[in-house]
Amino acid sequence: MMMIQTFAEPMLPAALQDQLRPLLDDAFPGFFNGRIYVKQQPHFRIIMDDEGEVVGQVALDYRVIRVGAEVVQICFVIDLCVRKDRRRQGIGSKLLAEAETQARQAGVSFIVLMADLHDFYSRHGFLRIQSELTRWLAIEDRASHSLIEEDLADQLMAKPMTEIGWPKGPIDLLGYLP
Ligand SMILES: CC(C)(COP(=O)(O)OP(=O)(O)OC[C@H]1O[C@@H](n2cnc3c(N)ncnc32)[C@H](O)[C@@H]1OP(=O)(O)O)[C@@H](O)C(=O)NCCC(=O)NCCS
Q1: Structural contact between residues 120 and 92, judged by C-beta atoms closer than 8 angstroms
Q2: What is the percent of the chain with per-residue pLDDT over 70, rounded to a whole number?
Q3: How far apart are CA 81 and CA 120, in angstroms?
Q4: pLDDT tens per residue, range 95-134
Q5: How far apart are the CA of 89 and the centre of ligand 1, in A?
Q6: pLDDT at residue 3 in the model
Q7: Which ligand 1 atom is nearest residue 81's CA?
Q8: Within 6 Å (CB) of ligand 1, which residues are found?
Q9: Which of 58, 117, 121 to mutate to test the pocket of ligand 1 (most atoms within 8 A of CB)?
Q10: How confident is the model at residue 174 (pLDDT cuts 50, 70, 90)?
Q11: Model pLDDT, residue 54
Q12: CA of 21 to the centre of ligand 1 (A)
């Protein structure tokens, strides 16, 4: 039977971490280097388990960011992936839906993610963010190295959790880019 579980990142059992490593490495080759995070540890991890086997996961990073004159509370949805042999069975959608439920309960204004698969996320209510410069702290090889400013409109997507739309203006992530 499949089961969704959520862990605060520091509480993630070692046995689950061991299962996440190959899953993440397989889904995002060359990014994780044997770790379960790329740049920085997320706050929460949602895991789909089937009879003791991890078949999918997604991580959450809660923060405030600046958009123009506004400071907004967001939840970054990070590293959504499903084991190759279990894709196209709705697991990714279930993980995304659970991430949304939790972010909504936490009271954020938007869920935000970086996406290549725009159609998949559009179907789940995510909208492209209009072209604006985004500023973030670059981390390479687990060292801070600079502030980067780039237009991420081709990748950034957001889903509003309230009636209020994405504010206008440049984006400052007030930290690293997940
Ligand atoms: C993206 C991913 C999490 C989807 O998980 P999933 O369990 O297969 O998702 P679901 O079964 O809920 O939905 C599948 C839908 O997503 C879309 N989709 C999934 N992978 C796709 C791909 N590589 N290219 C285009 N569309 C894709 C399809 O439209 C598919 O719908 P269909 O089966 O009706 O055609 C999974 O493919 C994955 O782990 N990919 C590798 C990691 C990754 O790219 N993560 C996203 C980072 S932006």
Answers
A1: yes
A2: 100
A3: 13
A4: 999 999 999 999 999 999 999 999 999 999 999 999 999 9
A5: 9
A6: 98
A7: 39
A8: 27, 80-82, 87-93, 115-117, 120
A9: 117
A10: very high
A11: 98
A12: 19
Q: Looking at ligand 1, which residue's alpha carbon is closest to its atom 38?
A: 81
Q: pLDDT value at position 153?
A: 95
The partner residues of 134 in beta bridges, in order of sequence, read 150, 171
User: How many CA atoms lie less than 13 Å away from 141 in the CB half-sphere?
Assistant: 1
Closest among 76, 60, 156, 150 to 109, alpha carbons compared: 76
The ligand 1 atom at the shortest distance from the C-alpha of residue 91 is 7
For 114-152, give the DSSP string. E-S-HHHHHTTT-EEPPS-EEEEEEEETTEEEEEEEEE-
pLDDT recorded at residue 85: 98
As a three-state string, the secondary structure of 57-91 is EEEEEEEEEEECCEEEEEEEEEEEEECHHHCCCCH
Task: Give all domains of the chain, ordered by start, each with its CATH number.
Answer: 2-176 (3.40.630.30)
Mean pLDDT of 74-97: 98
Please answer whether residues 160 and 72 qualify as being in contact, where contact means their C-beta atoms are separated by less than 8 angstroms: no
